[in-house]
């Protein structure tokens, strides 16, 4: 890894055989200079974006934004990857650093913003929302600014996008579709789902992946004869839930132009059945 530019004593912009990257390490930039080759023991973390152009653009942003915000974002990402036990898309450093810097500035100026998706983020992405809450606590400790749960939900949205490799528009569209499906289910069965139950959370997890396929116009893999037997068995065993699945399928096709496959309808039926049983316990 060679140094292209020193950003501060602990962060440099570098390049190796895999491309451009943000490189972190204690004292990695101290007394360094462009063209210098780094030793592996100097490097603690390498951050790669989805393209060299994106990385270069982020370097320009870091020259504009105080480094404290990037360091905080790095700490939040480290916490999120551990708490969620997952890798996050490197672009989250860009979106999160930018968001946090503006969020703190708005709060200091008394410009408060309400997150219209607060309820959905809390209930559809509870783990990511907890990360968002932890992030606001980190902001409070470091900058003395209380961002509140609306901003915690905004931070969670960035984490969700990085976790599932989607952009903010796709994430919001997916979340909106999940809400629409839940509304249809509640109307069909004449019930109010218990958002705090484990059955509800499992059901929402399935809906997130279903909605993600719909928004991305993805297709279920081809079905074989054995799967057809499974479809028929589920239809026969859970007719009320299958009828609800068909209503959801009709709505999705009419609204989004996506025709759900037999297996998608069948798995939705199974999850509906499990959700209803769980709600009754």
UniProtKB/TrEMBL annotation:
Keywords: Activator, Repeat, RNA-binding, Transcription, Transcription regulation. Residues 64-169, 170-281 form the PRD domain. PROSITE patterns: PRD_1 (PS00654), PRD_2 (PS51372). The keyword Repeat applies. One of its GO terms (molecular function) is RNA binding. One of its GO terms (biological process) is positive regulation of DNA-templated transcription. Coiled coil: none annotated. Belongs to the transcriptional antiterminator BglG family. This is Transcription antiterminator LicT. It comes from bioreactor metagenome.
């Amino acid at each position: 890894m060679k140094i292209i530019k020193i950003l501060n004593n602990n962060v440099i912009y570098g390049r190796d055989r895999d491309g451009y990257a943000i490189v972190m390490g204690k004292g990695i930039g101290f007394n360094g200079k462009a063209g210098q080759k780094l030793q592996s023991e100097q490097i603690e973390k390498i951050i790669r974006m989805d393209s060299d152009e994106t990385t270069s653009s982020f370097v320009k942003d870091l020259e504009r934004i105080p480094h404290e915000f990037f360091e905080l974002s790095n700490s939040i990402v480290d916490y999120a990857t551990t708490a969620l036990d997952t890798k996050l898309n490197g672009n989250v450093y860009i979106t999160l650093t930018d968001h946090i810097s503006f969020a703190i500035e708005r709060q200091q100026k008394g410009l408060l913003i309400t997150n219209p998706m607060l309820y959905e983020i809390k209930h559809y992405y509870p783990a990511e929302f907890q990360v968002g809450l932890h992030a606001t606590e980190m902001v409070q400790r470091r900058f003395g600014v209380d961002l509140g749960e609306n901003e915690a939900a905004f931070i969670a949205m960035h984490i969700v996008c990085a976790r599932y490799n989607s952009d903010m528009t796709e994430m919001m569209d997916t979340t909106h579709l999940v809400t629409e499906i839940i509304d249809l289910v509640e109307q069909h069965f004449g019930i109010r789902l218990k958002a705090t139950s484990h059955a509800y959370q499992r059901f929402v997890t399935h809906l997130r992946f279903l909605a993600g396929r719909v928004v991305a116009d993805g297709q279920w893999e081809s079905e074989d004869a054995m799967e057809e037997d499974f479809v028929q068995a589920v239809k026969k065993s859970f007719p009320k839930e299958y009828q609800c699945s068909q209503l959801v399928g009709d709505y999705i096709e009419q609204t989004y132009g996506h025709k759900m496959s037999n297996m998608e309808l069948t798995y939705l039926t199974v999850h509906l059945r499990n959700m209803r049983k769980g709600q009754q316990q």
